[in-house]
Amino acid sequence: MWSQLYSALASSLVVRFGLLSYYHDRFRQAVVYKYLSRENSVKVATRKLAAYFKQKLQENNITYRVVDELPYLLERAGDREELKSVITNIKLFDKVEFSFLFFFFF
Prior knowledge:
mainly alpha, globular
């Protein structure tokens, strides 16, 4: 299923820094308009993504992507207590460099 979808959209997608993105900004704008234009939809999507990455953290499936995305998503969602809990989790320090945390807070 994924390979068929990717093949159909390959000319409209690009990989940047290991992440799949849209080749043209108009594609991104169309997706935002279609799925994120309602008043609360961005916050709901942000919380769903944060929940996904929190689950990975709880399962000890800690990757650089979890380390990178989870603090950002929690901060963006305004969940400061959960953000404090996550960034003080010692398991994250196995994967993160000090410079990342320094940049995030200062």
